Amino acid sequence: MVRFALTIVRHGETRYNKDKILQGQGVDEPLSATGFRQADAAGIFLSNVKFTHVFSSDLLRAKQTASTIIGKNKFCKDIVIQYDARLRERKYGIAEGRPLSDLKAMANAAGEQCPSFTPSGGETLDEVRTRAKNFFEFLCQLSIEEECQKEQAVLGMAGNGLETLEGKPVFPLRNHCCGLELNSDTDKDTKMLNPNILVVSHGAYMRNWFGYFVLDLKCTLPSALKKSQLSSVSPNTGVSHFIINLGNGDVIKPEISCICLNRDDHLADVNTENV
């Protein structure tokens, strides 16, 4: 049985986020002072989580967020962050660097609505979802390969009196995940999982990825989660956490449980005034 934990965090705020200007892939803005404070808060919130892998979009705002989070972690300060272009924000073509209101005006002129509208030179929602699916399948394959390596290592230690090491608790949440009341089975799953993967990405990309989880893979959701939350873009440094069970056999059939979606209570004390 192959299982792994997946924590997905949106990058911290940039000046363009604050001003509601589309960045996409073509505008590579750094974090603002507020964005760094948000990343610090997310890092403190996740500081007791022993991640085994960290992946980030290769855009600057995501890279800075991932680095800040890991810098606060008690177990992972020496971990190598892997940057992956598949985690980039949706490409908005001619709308990049322009106000969100311009994109909405383009959509209205075309008789369409955001976010399904695709500006010239931009990515369709299907294209973004294909990128997310490709990256998720990569994570699944990575987990399977590592499980095989672990089993071989255990066989190699048979009879030598050594015990296998159990993982650390993978996430600092218990009964505070969107009102979710964890049952004994779920709680057991969240305690000992390996790999334990952190991903830092972008708002529109994450919304499409979560849509793939829910619509295509029938992800189990917390009972208190509202439908409006599923279609909302994560706040900056919003934290989502999933448990993935890949089962057995040659065909990978992921079973996904969402523990929390776009959680942002770690930002309660972050000053979000203009800096």
What does this entry look like structurally?
The chain is of the alpha/beta class. The chain has a domain of 188 residues: Rossmann fold, CATH 3.40.50. Helix content is 36%, strand content 15%. A six-stranded mixed β-sheet has the order 3-2-4-1-5-6. The radius of gyration is 19 Å and the shape is globular. Keywords: Hydrolase. It catalyses: beta-D-fructose 2,6-bisphosphate + H2O = beta-D-fructose 6-phosphate + phosphate. It comes from Gopherus agassizii (Agassiz's desert tortoise).
Strand order of the largest sheet: 3-2-4-1-5-6
Average pLDDT reading: 86
CATH architecture descriptor name of the domain at 2-17 and 30-92 and 124-150 and 192-273: 3-Layer(aba) Sandwich
Categorize the overall geometry: globular
Radius of gyration: 19 Å
How many DSSP helices? 8
The N- and C-terminal alpha carbons lie at a distance of 49 Å
Share of residues in helices? 25-40%
For this structure, what is the CATH class of the domain at 2-17 and 30-92 and 124-150 and 192-273? Alpha Beta
Kindly estimate the percentage of residues that lie in beta strands according to DSSP. 5-15%
Uncertain ranges: 158-169, 174-192
Secondary-structure element pattern, one letter each: EHHEHEHHHEHHEE
Look up the CATH topology of the domain at 2-17 and 30-92 and 124-150 and 192-273.
Rossmann fold
Category by helix and strand content: alpha/beta
GO biological process, one term: negative regulation of glycolytic process
EC number: 3.1.3.46
Family: Belongs to the phosphoglycerate mutase family.
GO molecular function: fructose-2,6-bisphosphate 2-phosphatase activity
